[in-house]
Amino acid sequence: MVRYTSRFKYEDVSANKTEGSSWFYNCLSYSHLGSMLSAALRMLADLWLFKLPQIWYGLRLHKLFRITAKANWLWRSTWYLAVVMTCAWFGYQLWEYFPKQYFAMMPEWMLLTTARVVAAMVLSIVIFTPLGVWIGMNPRLVKFFQPIIQILAAIPPNIFYPLIAAFIAVYHQDLGWWAIPMIMIGTQWYVLFNVIAGVTAIPSQITEVSETFGLRSFKWWRYYMLPAIFPYIVTGIISAAGGAWNSAIAAEVIQWGPPRSVLPGWALLFQS
């Protein structure tokens, strides 16, 4: 997929970057299976975009929808009523489940967990944005690292937690500081491969302009690289936020045998 999307990159000058390749993409392109899949997808697209609309209007089904469209207010009201009633029911169930005696401590625990999540995300951005730029500027490194990073991003971070838990238990470390690197395991990959994608998507003419003006060091980052990849950094932050919150609950609780270490935060509430 990464190799296929390179054809949609906007370039109006000759690019100096070497186009990436993929053995899997090449096998599909030149194999009979790839040809059959391509033909099947073309037939499906033709059926969906052209054949079905002709059948639809040939059977005059659009007139049926014109009639039902007059009752849109009824369907809309029914839908909103169902949504409100469902939310009210689940809210009541949550209220009955929630331990009322911890209301006073909830703001403090929420702030502690939020601080750990923010710290993990900031460190991920500071560390892996330059690393992603370094990889993205070299097509060979992109070819080697990008599939690995995407596979690692798909692995649940909880898989790595037993290794960290064993280290903390054996060497008697404090979980308080180790919770942040554990949360970073669920955030760093999203930042990294989004930054790599942003660097590889930069049109070559913008790179040539930056070289023409002789941008170096801080000015190179401020006026060229960071503005060019900023949308991808934001995308990585949004993706990493979900992973950070999922990792935070598990990172705040470590149990290796009978000993258990629980940090003040949302995990302490769930353990209660």
From TrEMBL:
<dbReference type="GO" id="GO:0005886">
    <property type="term" value="C:plasma membrane"/>
</dbReference>
<keyword id="KW-0812">Transmembrane</keyword>
<feature type="transmembrane region" description="Helical">
    <location>
        <begin position="115"/>
        <end position="136"/>
    </location>
</feature>
<dbReference type="InterPro" id="IPR000515">
    <property type="entry name" value="MetI-like"/>
</dbReference>
<feature type="transmembrane region" description="Helical">
    <location>
        <begin position="73"/>
        <end position="95"/>
    </location>
</feature>
<feature type="transmembrane region" description="Helical">
    <location>
        <begin position="148"/>
        <end position="171"/>
    </location>
</feature>
<feature type="transmembrane region" description="Helical">
    <location>
        <begin position="177"/>
        <end position="202"/>
    </location>
</feature>
<dbReference type="Pfam" id="PF00528">
    <property type="entry name" value="BPD_transp_1"/>
</dbReference>
<feature type="domain" description="ABC transmembrane type-1">
    <location>
        <begin position="110"/>
        <end position="272"/>
    </location>
</feature>
<feature type="transmembrane region" description="Helical">
    <location>
        <begin position="223"/>
        <end position="245"/>
    </location>
</feature>
<keyword id="KW-1003">Cell membrane</keyword>
<dbReference type="InterPro" id="IPR035906">
    <property type="entry name" value="MetI-like_sf"/>
</dbReference>
<dbReference type="GO" id="GO:0055085">
    <property type="term" value="P:transmembrane transport"/>
</dbReference>
<protein>
    <submittedName>
        <fullName>Bicarbonate transport system permease protein CmpB</fullName>
    </submittedName>
</protein>
<keyword id="KW-0997">Cell inner membrane</keyword>
<comment type="similarity">
    <text>Belongs to the binding-protein-dependent transport system permease family.</text>
</comment>
<keyword id="KW-0813">Transport</keyword>
<keyword id="KW-1133">Transmembrane helix</keyword>
<keyword id="KW-0472">Membrane</keyword>
